[in-house]
Design brief:
Helices cover 40% and strands 30% of the residues. With 122 residues, the chain is of the alpha+beta class. The protein has one domain: 2-Layer Sandwich (YaeB-like fold), CATH 3.30.2310.
């Protein structure tokens, strides 16, 4: 499975200290257990990520587009202390974006990687 993060999320993760290892762990957890904090539908999941040295409950929330053994995109994150949740309009937008991202061809993915719109997580 290939795992990616978009350019916005790449900056967010760097600022908040979220490592690529943590992103891979999120993907593995969802893959192995089929569970996340919230399944928002359409391959969109909200997962908890602990802040460095703290627990998950007050940490970060990460929006991940996940399709079993296909591709995963980390696209958005926020601190639980900054906002309680995402709104209905955002959920709808995330579902549309997930559908579009899952439809990308390998050639399109490679073009996005060259433009640095996406970064592959290893």
């Amino acid at each position: 499975m290939r795992t990616f993060k978009n350019s916005w999320f790449t900056r967010f993760a760097a600022k908040e200290g979220i490592t690529d290892g943590e992103l891979k762990a999120i993907v593995n957890d969802v893959l192995e257990t089929g569970q996340a904090e919230a399944n928002l539908g359409g391959g969109v999941y909200k997962v908890r990520v602990a802040r460095p040295g703290e627990g998950k409950s007050g940490g970060h929330r990460v929006i991940v587009f996940f399709k079993s053994e296909f591709r995963t995109f980390s696209v958005y994150g926020f601190e639980k202390s900054d906002r309680a949740n995402i709104g209905q309009r955002e959920k709808r937008d995330f579902k549309k974006n997930a559908k579009d991202d899952f439809a990308l061809t390998d050639e399109q993915i490679e073009a996005w990687l060259r433009r640095e719109s996406l970064v592959e997580v290893f």
